[in-house]
Amino acid sequence: MSYTVLKVKYLIFFFLFISSPLLAGEICSEYDSQIEPDFRWKESDFTKEASIKALSELSESINKNEMLATFQLPNNLSLIEGYILKQDALRALDGKSVHAGIVEYYVTNFCEFLVRTPIYD
């Protein structure tokens, strides 16, 4: 087997197995959370749509001078913050000439937020 064939096999292995969590959208798969599983956010919770909905609920409450349920304020703020942190991490990971330290900074910010922020009920 030639060196080129081995190199190609290695590249295929790398992209299929090593980078698959990143391709699947799992940025923080190596981080462990001490939060009860039912009260953990998932990376997939932090979407643009969820963030816009949370912002809308907060805005409506302010405009109408209404009280929020005890869990609404922290959960809505978490959705907005988590979405922003996730987007920063994704942009850093996608950057072609981004320094590794910068990537680590943004990924760590998002992942630490994810493992320490509970869903309030």
Walk me through what this model shows.
The protein is mainly α and 121 residues long. Helices cover 64% and strands 0% of the residues. It contains five helices and no strands. The radius of gyration is 19 Å and the shape is globular. The termini are far apart.
Structure keywords:
about 65% helix
Quick structural overview:
The chain is mostly helical and 121 residues long. It is built from five helices and no strands.
Strand content: under 5%
Which residues sit in consecutive blocks of at least 5 with pLDDT less than 50? 5-23
Largest sheet: none
Total beta-strand segments: 0
Order of helices and strands: HHHHH
Q: Shape from CA axes?
A: globular
Backbone CA Rg? 19 Å
Mean pLDDT metric: 85
Structural class of the secondary structure composition?
mainly alpha
Number of helices: 5
- Give the fraction of residues assigned to helices: 55-70%
How widely separated are the two ends?
Answer: 59 Å
